[in-house]
């Protein structure tokens, strides 16, 4: 009977050791995944900051007054005077 008790105790002891190793490994994986999560959150925050900066830059670059100034200065365009505008009426040609 002592031999059977020895094997039961040995198996139970081995199971305790295996369980302890599994707990340690699980805690390690939890820490690794948490560190990855923190890195991803930091990346997300940096991307959010960049996105907000780009939205502000787009708003500043697309203002009507800025576009008009660039059109006048760089392209030499201007708004036509009321007398320079001709309205054409449709004659119906080319209609099916």
Automatic annotation (TrEMBL):
The chain crosses the membrane at residues 6-24. The keyword Cell wall biogenesis/degradation does not apply. The keyword NAD does not apply. It is found in: Cell inner membrane; Cell membrane. One of its GO terms (cellular component) is plasma membrane. It holds the Pfam family FtsL. It comes from the Bacteria. InterPro entries: Cell_div_FtsL (IPR011922). One of its GO terms (biological process) is FtsZ-dependent cytokinesis. It is a single-pass type II membrane protein. Keywords: Cell cycle, Cell division, Cell inner membrane, Cell membrane, Membrane, Transmembrane, Transmembrane helix. Part of a complex composed of FtsB, FtsL and FtsQ. HAMAP family: FtsL. Belongs to the FtsL family. Essential cell division protein. May link together the upstream cell division proteins, which are predominantly cytoplasmic, with the downstream cell division proteins, which are predominantly periplasmic. This is Cell division protein FtsL. It comes from Marichromatium gracile.
């Amino acid at each position: 009977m002592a031999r059977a008790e020895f094997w039961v105790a040995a198996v139970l002891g081995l199971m305790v050791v295996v369980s302890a190793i599994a707990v340690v490994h699980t805690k390690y994986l939890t820490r690794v995944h948490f560190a990855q999560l923190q890195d991803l959150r930091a990346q997300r925050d940096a991307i959010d900051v960049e996105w907000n900066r780009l939205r502000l830059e787009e708003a500043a670059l697309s203002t009507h007054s800025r576009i008009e100034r660039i059109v006048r200065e760089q392209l030499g365009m201007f708004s036509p005077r009321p007398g320079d505008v001709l309205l054409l009426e449709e004659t119906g040609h080319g209609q099916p």
